[in-house]
Amino acid sequence: MIAPKSMKTTIRPMGNSRGIIIAKTLLAQLGFEGEIEMTVERGTLVLRKPAQPARDGWAESAQRVAVAGDDALVMPEFANEGDAALAW
After folding, report:
1. Contacts of 19 (CB under 8 A, 6+ apart)
2. Can you give the residue ranges of every domain in the chain?
3. Is the terminal CB of the chain with fewer CB neighbours within 10 Å at N or C?
4. Distance from C-alpha of 20 to C-alpha of 15, rounded to nearest angstrom
């Protein structure tokens, strides 16, 4: 079921705050689950899915590449002249 383009809801008391009930169909249409980001833009309340953290999923992807044996160096390591003489 597709939610209507516009609907009214009531602002209700919820403890010391106020809140609204968002229809299940509208949440499903937007793909909202768990947490959302909420901002005010030019006097309008805007709800968005949280931005995916940078590098989210990289560790799992790297592990899949390693398991597949596809993690060989693409370029050779570059040694600097005299590196062998350096003490770390």
Report:
1. 11, 12
2. 22-50
3. C
4. 13
The gap between the terminal CA atoms of the chain, to the nearest Å, is: 65
pLDDT at residue number 55: 85
**Given this model, what pLDDT does residue 76 score?**
75
Considering just the CA atoms, what is the radius of gyration of the chain in Å?
A: 25
Average pLDDT taken over every residue of the chain:
86
**pTM passes above 0.85:** no
What average pLDDT does the segment 52-66 reach?
Answer: 87
pLDDT above 70: residue 1: no
